[in-house]
Structure to design on (341 residues):
């Protein structure tokens, strides 16, 4: 086991992020009006849907992702008009990782201001040798995964903040991921250790952006090439 | 020379060394943020006109506090590498990488002082 395969680390982190479920109605009875999703019982607010979230419908005649602009108990208004659909059981609205993911160095077209999206980057940090001699020494490899969450502007902030909080819940200190032949561990397990955090939302163009920092490390072996 | 004076001298030396380590750590952290450091991996502040790099200041509000700060509002956009920021040299996240590597800075500066 030589040094950390950073591409495997980055992919492992992405894979975990893609499992994100910020909130969901669960399978229930839902319909559509021209202005958004409707329900006669239960509450979108109790299900934690909020304005600014990008929802993925399931069980509807059309299941395209849409952004919510206002949420009440029985109506989740959407940015784009919907076709009228009668209420029916077995439908779900869920919020996860934005569908637009500008992964590092990919050329992704970003919508101007109508939808949330993310960017990510792997930030290297210097490794540390833990034992001697150097050949075959135990070493710790470090890095930080940085994800910028661009939420839509013009809506109350809880929708964006709930998404970022749920993202951080996937990367609590001590979380372990398999990255190639190593175990990648999220830092912050000891008192005073830096741990994942998300910055304040700041304005950027037509979006509000919060930067999420996930420091990680892996125990590896130092190998000096012959 | 008595045992108590030995202890007193040792205590004074420890206190002086502690102050040296503190001052050197603060200076090293400042250098890491502004110019970069191989200890922390911070790339340092990008330079176009030099305004951002020169805006950073290290001050000591009290004998036990060091403050490293800038008053430029776009510094946070550079630090977080948000859209619209481009880098011709150095890079983002220097403050974060310096904070992550602070233990290493303390360790390096302690070794310099006490050997």
């Amino acid at each position: 086991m030589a040094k950390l395969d950073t591409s495997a680390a980055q992919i492992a982190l992405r894979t975990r992020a893609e499992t994100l479920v910020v909130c969901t109605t669960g399978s229930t009875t839902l319909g559509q009006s021209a202005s958004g999703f409707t329900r006669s019982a239960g509450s979108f607010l109790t299900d934690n849907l909020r304005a600014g979230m990008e929802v993925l419908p399931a069980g509807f005649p059309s299941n395209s992702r849409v952004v919510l602009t206002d949420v009440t108990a029985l109506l989740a208004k959407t940015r784009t008009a919907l076709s009228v659909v009668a209420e029916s059981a077995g439908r779900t609205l869920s919020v996860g990782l934005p569908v637009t993911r500008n992964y590092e160095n990919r050329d992704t077209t970003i919508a101007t201001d109508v939808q949330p999206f993310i960017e990510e980057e792997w930030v290297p940090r210097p490794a540390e040798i833990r034992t001697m001699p150097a050949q075959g020494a135990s070493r710790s490899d470090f890095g930080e995964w940085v994800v910028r969450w661009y939420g839509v502007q013009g809506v109350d902030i809880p929708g964006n903040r709930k998404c970022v909080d749920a993202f951080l819940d996937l990367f609590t200190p001590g979380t372990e991921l398999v990255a190639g032949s190593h175990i990648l561990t999220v830092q912050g397990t000891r008192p005073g250790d830096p741990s994942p955090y998300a910055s304040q939302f700041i304005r950027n163009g037509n979006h509000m952006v919060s930067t999420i920092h996930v420091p990680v490390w892996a125990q590896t072996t130092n190998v000096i090439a012959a | 020379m008595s045992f108590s004076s030995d202890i007193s001298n040792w205590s004074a030396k420890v206190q002086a060394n502690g102050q040296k380590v503190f001052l050197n750590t603060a200076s090293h952290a400042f250098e890491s943020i502004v110019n970069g450091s191989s200890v922390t991996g911070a790339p340092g502040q990008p330079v176009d006109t030099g305004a951002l790099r020169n805006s950073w200041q290290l001050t000591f509000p009290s004998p036990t506090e060091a403050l490293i700060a800038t008053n430029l509002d776009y510094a946070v956009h550079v630090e977080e590498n948000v859209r619209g920021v481009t880098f011709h040299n150095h890079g983002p996240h220097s403050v974060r990488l310096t904070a992550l590597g602070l233990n290493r800075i303390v360790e390096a500066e302690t070794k310099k002082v006490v050997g």
Observations:
- The first helix of chain A runs from residue 6 to 17.
- Chain A has two helices and 15 strands.
- The first strand of chain A starts at residue 21 and ends at 24.
- Chain A touches chain B through 22 residues (CB under 8 Å).
